[in-house]
């Protein structure tokens, strides 16, 4: 998907002995949005915005060792190894041949280096330039910033698309507010700005500015505008939309002390797992301290400062736990961390209370299962279908105050809660509204300047679309049996108009699909080489819906 931006120059930092000025260049193609204020909580803001940068550049995907150089070396020396092995037949003669071959190979390598030297030099110079002068070219997209009457917040996505970050600042963070206009915009953000953030000090005045001058009407000086076109993968946009949908899902909530997060990070830094399962298991008992178990070592952390206040006993396992080290920089300035768990193998959100700021870290089910592949959370949140007129009413009411709850909007418009919730859910799934976990309300946030092609982005492949249709139209039955090794054997039937399909799925302790079968033609032809069929997806989505409903009743 092609996104076009027109920044009023470049974001910049000015630093003197007494003042640091942070000026972000907004996207002038979007509706005018600006903000000017002087920071009060300087060090806390520096650490929080730096943690957001850590999210942007993070990539926790498995990276296999690069063995290309080793294989080339083996190929080059294979003849020598064979010659040395056979040298026993005629040692002197063979050694002479080996020496001659070595000389010939050395000459060939010298000639190769001479021929490739200009290319290698140019390539090295190019990447050095990118890294030093234009490091933002390595990243995918500039952060999104939204200004509301009560706060401003930055949002970003990690390089591996498995981690979401959001930094919210209420206006107590600022000593002086000069001017602001509510709205959402993309800002020109470069890696060099991160280095400048590290220079923020308490003894220096720090001004934060989303430059309003960029929106002034210009008939000359067009060279000061920087136009950027970014061809974003659909998975990035789909991931952002899935985060918004996941936030609205019901979850289990409890607080952790910063030292509890420190204990988790300490163990993850000290030990490295070599086998599975790699889960972080939460043991929650009402009225007792939260307990954490790190697998496969079985190391248990008892959080004596954090008492679980829920109504029922719970055991939830999450994966991709090494991404929690992104919270380390927040530990000295955090009051507490509120954890929102959607369920075993489902997303988790960690909201850091930074007094007048908050930092939300959203983690997909596990690192390799990024947000765009994480299971279409809009399918897990069935909503009431509402008319276009009702949607427009709800959107207008939300735009009036920029934030609102289902109950408040329903009372204002004299609509049912189900209608309002359905309309807000629809807008959440198209990137126009976001759910605020900290304040449990919906906020207006236009992810892009132009409407997104939702139907194009909603599904990763045609089978997911067929599965969504089956969930609405077909009769689905399933049974789940848990084995001694923590596997779930899921069997089910999907009864459509033409016939009934029978599918079996085996889900392992890491909530990954181990094996599956179905009597449909797609599975018969492709097995699992092209992924699960629509009947397997429909049965698993139905199974997940039932788990969520049981959790709500509990």
Mean pLDDT, rounded to whole units? 81
Give Rg in angstroms.
28 Å
Task: Return the structural class.
Answer: alpha+beta
**Which percent bin holds the helix content?**
25-40%
Question: Largest beta sheet: what is the strand line-up?
Answer: 9-5-6-7-19-18-17-12
In total, how many beta strands? 26
The shape is globular
Outline the secondary-structure elements.
Elements: E1 2-7, E2 12-15, E3 19-24, E4 34-39, H1 42-57, H2 68-85, H3 91-133, E5 144-147, E6 151-157, E7 163-170, E8 174-181, E9 183-186, H4 191-197, E10 205-210, E11 226-231, H5 234-247, E12 252-256, H6 258-270, E13 280-284, E14 289-294, E15 299-307, E16 314-318, E17 336-341, E18 348-353, E19 357-363, H7 377-380, H8 388-401, E20 403-404, H9 406-413, H10 417-429, E21 433-436, E22 441-444, H11 454-458, H12 462-473, E23 475-482, E24 488-495, E25 500-507, E26 513-518, H13 521-526, H14 534-553
Parallel strand pairs: 3-10
Antiparallel strand pairs: 1-11, 2-3, 4-8, 4-10, 5-6, 5-9, 6-7, 7-19, 12-17, 13-14, 13-16, 14-15, 17-18, 18-19, 20-22, 21-22, 23-24, 24-25, 25-26
Helix pairs in contact: 2-3, 8-9, 8-10, 9-10, 12-14
Summarize the structure.
With 554 residues, the protein is α+β, with helices and mostly antiparallel strands. The chain has 14 helices and 26 strands.
């Amino acid at each position: 998907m092609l996104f076009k931006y027109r920044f009023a120059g470049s974001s910049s930092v000015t630093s003197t002995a007494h003042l640091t000025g942070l000026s972000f260049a907004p996207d002038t193609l979007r509706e005018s949005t600006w903000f000017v204020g002087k920071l009060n909580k300087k060090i806390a803001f520096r650490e929080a915005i730096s943690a957001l940068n850590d999210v942007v550049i993070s990539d926790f995907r498995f990276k296999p060792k690069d063995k290309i150089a080793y294989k080339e070396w083996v190929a080059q020396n294979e003849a020598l190894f064979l010659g040395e092995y056979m040298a026993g037949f005629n040692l002197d003669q063979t050694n002479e041949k080996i020496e001659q071959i070595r000389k010939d190979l050395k000459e060939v390598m010298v000639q190769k280096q001479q021929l490739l030297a200009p290319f290698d030099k140019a390539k090295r110079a190019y990447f050095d330039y990118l890294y030093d002068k234009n490091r933002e070219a390595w990243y995918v997209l500039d952060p999104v910033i939204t200004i509301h009457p009560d706060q401003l917040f930055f949002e970003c996505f990690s390089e591996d698309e498995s981690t979401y970050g959001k930094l919210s600042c209420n206006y107590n963070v600022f000593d002086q507010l000069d001017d602001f206009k509510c709205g959402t915009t993309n800002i020109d953000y470069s890696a060099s700005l991160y280095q400048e953030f590290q220079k923020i000090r308490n003894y220096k005045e720090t001004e934060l500015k989303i430059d309003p001058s960029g929106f002034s009407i210009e008939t000359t000086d067009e060279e000061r505008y920087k136009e950027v076109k970014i061809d974003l993968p659909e998975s990035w946009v789909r991931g952002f939309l899935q985060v918004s949908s996941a936030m609205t899902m019901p979850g289990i909530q409890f607080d952790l002390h910063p030292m509890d997060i420190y204990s988790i990070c300490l163990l993850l830094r000290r030990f490295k797992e070599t086998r599975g399962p790699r889960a972080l298991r939460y043991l929650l008992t009402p009225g007792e301290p939260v307990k954490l178990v790190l697998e496969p070592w079985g190391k248990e952390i008892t959080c004596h400062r954090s008492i679980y206040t829920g109504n029922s006993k719970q055991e939830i396992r999450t994966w991709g736990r090494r991404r929690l080290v992104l919270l380390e920089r927040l530990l000295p300035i955090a009051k507490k961390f509120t954890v929102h768990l959607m369920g075993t193998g489902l997303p988790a959100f960690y909201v850091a209370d930074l007094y007048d700021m908050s930092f939300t870290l959203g983690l997909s089910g596990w690192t390799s299962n990024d947000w765009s592949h994480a299971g279409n959370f809009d399918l897990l949140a069935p909503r009431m279908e509402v008319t276009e007129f009702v949607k427009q009413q709800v959107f207008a009411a939300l735009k009036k105050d920029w934030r609102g709850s289902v109950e408040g909007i329903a009372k204002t418009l004299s609509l049912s809660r189900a209608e309002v919730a359905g309309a807000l859910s629809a807008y959440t799934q198209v990137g126009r509204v976001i759910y605020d976990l900290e304040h449990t309300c919906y906020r207006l946030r236009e992810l892009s300047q132009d409407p997104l092609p939702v139907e194009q982005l909603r599904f990763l492949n045609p089978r997911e679309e067929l599965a969504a249709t089956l969930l609405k139209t077909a009769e689905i039955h399933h049974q789940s049996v848990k084995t001694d090794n923590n596997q779930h054997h899921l069997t089910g039937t999907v009864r459509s108009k033409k016939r009934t399909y029978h599918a079996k799925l085996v889900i392992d302790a890491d909530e990954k699909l181990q094996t599956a079968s179905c009597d449909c033609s797609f599975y018969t032809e492709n097995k699992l080489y092209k992924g699960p069929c629509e009947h397997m997806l429909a049965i698993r989505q139905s199974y997940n819906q039932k788990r969520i409903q049981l959790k709500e009743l509990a």
